[in-house]
């Protein structure tokens, strides 16, 4: 081989080596680019995964809120149904009350005249009855008349008081009672002790216990009793006042239908 040929070979070898080196450098650059791109993709993937995770968590929270909202909506619906039933019931009650209120005037038109008749009847009854506690009974009737003229007293309260007066009158027929009051003996008025056994007997005795009288409802007057009754009358008064134990005693009683 000639010197030129060797030189050419060496030159070719150097060029080839240079070419290979350039090729290797180019390949290295491409690998580096690939690695960088891969790193960028991985970084982007991580960021995307984080976003996905965040969206997933938000979705879970929203799902929980939705379920809570649905549950609350069902509870509210049940409560609203309950309230609606109550409102419907109240409306029915209001309608019923309105009907009753509409009939109050008609009821008053019947009840008020009835009460006046009841008071008049009670007044006549007291006038014809045995005159025990007469002043208190008359005062009660006058109070009823005043109540009927009082606009501040409701009709129901007026009716209650009238019925109460009738109940009190009924008790006079069953009680054994003694009290002190004024005795009118045809113009002569004196203070005396009274005792009555229901409506069977009403007896008066002077405070000095020397005289006694029995009420005669037929003649509407007082009949004087004999001395034989004085002790019995005194004992009866004391028993009625619980000053003596209850015991048998002798009192004058008018037979039914006696003249």
From TrEMBL:
Which N-terminal residues, if any, form the signal peptide?
1-26
InterPro entries linked to this entry: UCP028069 (IPR016866)
What keywords is this UniProt entry annotated with?
Signal
State the name under which the record lists this protein. DUF3450 domain-containing protein
């Amino acid at each position: 081989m000639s010197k030129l040929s060797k030189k050419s070979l060496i030159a070719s070898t150097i060029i080839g080596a240079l070419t290979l080196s350039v090729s290797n450098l180019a390949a290295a650059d491409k690998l580096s680019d690939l690695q960088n791109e891969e790193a960028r993709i991985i970084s982007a993937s991580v960021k995307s995964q984080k976003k996905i995770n965040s969206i997933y968590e938000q979705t879970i929270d929203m799902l929980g809120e939705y379920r809570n909202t649905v549950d609350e909506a069902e509870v509210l619906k049940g409560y609203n149904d309950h309230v609606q039933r109550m409102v419907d019931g109240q409306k029915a009650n209001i309608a019923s009350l309105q009907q009753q209120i509409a009939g109050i005037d008609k009821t008053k038109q019947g009840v008020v005249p009835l009460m006046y008749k009841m008071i008049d009847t009670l007044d006549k009854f007291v006038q014809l009855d045995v005159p025990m506690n007469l002043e208190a009974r008359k005062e009660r009737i006058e109070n009823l008349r005043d109540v009927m003229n009082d606009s501040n007293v409701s009709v129901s309260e007026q009716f209650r008081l009238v019925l109460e007066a009738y109940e009190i009158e009924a008790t006079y027929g069953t009680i054994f009672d003694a009290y002190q009051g004024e005795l009118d003996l045809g113009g002569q008025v004196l203070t005396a002790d009274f005792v009555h056994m229901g409506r069977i007997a009403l007896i008066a005795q002077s405070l000095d216990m020397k005289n006694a009288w029995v009420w005669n409802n037929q003649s509407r007057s007082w009949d004087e009793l004999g001395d034989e009754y004085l002790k019995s009358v005194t004992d009866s008064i004391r028993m009625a006042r619980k000053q003596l134990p209850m015991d048998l005693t002798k009192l004058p009683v008018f037979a039914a239908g006696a003249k």
